Each structure stands twice: as structure tokens, then as C-alpha cells.
Amino acid sequence: MTKRLTGGAGTGKKIIKNLDLFKHSFNKVDEEGNYIFNVSFGKQSGNFVISYNEDGVIDERSTLNMKDLDKKTLEIYNDPSLREVAEMLMNDYESNKDENENN
Questions:
Q1: Does position 77 have pLDDT exceeding 90, yes or no?
Q2: pLDDT tens profile 21-32
Q3: What is the pLDDT of residue 69?
Q4: In a domain, 42, yes or no
Q5: Which residues form the domain of 24?
């Protein structure tokens, strides 16, 4: 049976436990300063839009948007594991910043 994200609490935890199914690539920084990543989990695909608040912390309005999954912000369900996924993406972005900015 194919694993998929269903949108309940623990979405980030499910991603972290199944990193072999989770793929991501940096797309762009939009005009509002949001970092946009293309993401997939198994056969589900979409994007993760990550924004920072005025304190330089990943904002709770950052959003995971995937096929067959309701739009999921970090504040929904108070899911700290989804914040971990956002931090993982941003750490990867920072590690590959030169490469990302040249694409």
C-alpha cells in the first residue's frame, strides 16, 4: 500500500519518518520574500511556501500545499514536526545557496 499524507496532525512527523519518499527542490524566492520549494511525497506533489516573521523565525503561516491534502499551515494542528520539515528545507537551501541562486 502506498504511503500518503492525509492532512491530520503529525504530517511533518510522517514526512520525517519516511524521508525516502520525500523529495524537494528549491524553486524561487517570490516578490514577497517567501521561499518556495517543489515537494513530493510518494505520488503526491505540490509546494512548501516558507516565510519568515519580523524576528527572523519561520512564520506560522508558512504553508504546505500538496495534491489531495488540504492547505496546511504550520499553525494548523499546532504541528511542530511540520516546522522541522520547513527548517530542514531552509537548511538545505542555505547549504546550497550559491547553486540555488544560479538556477
A1: no
A2: 999 999 999 999
A3: 74
A4: yes
A5: 11-99
| pTM attached to this predicted model | 0.88
Cell 516565510 found at:
51
Ramachandran class of 3: left when φ > 0, alpha when ψ lies in -120 to 50, beta otherwise: beta
Query: Structurally, how many domains does the chain consist of?
Result: 1
**Torsion of the alpha carbons at 76, 82, 87 and 89, rounded to the nearest 10:** -110
pLDDT confidence of 78, banded at 50, 70, 90? low
Domain-embedded: residue 93 = yes
- Mean pLDDT computed over 31-60: 94
- Residue 21 resides in a domain: yes
Residue 29 in any domain: the answer is yes
* 8 A C-beta contact, residue 62 and residue 52: no
Cα atoms in the Cβ-side hemisphere of radius 13 Å centred on 85: 32
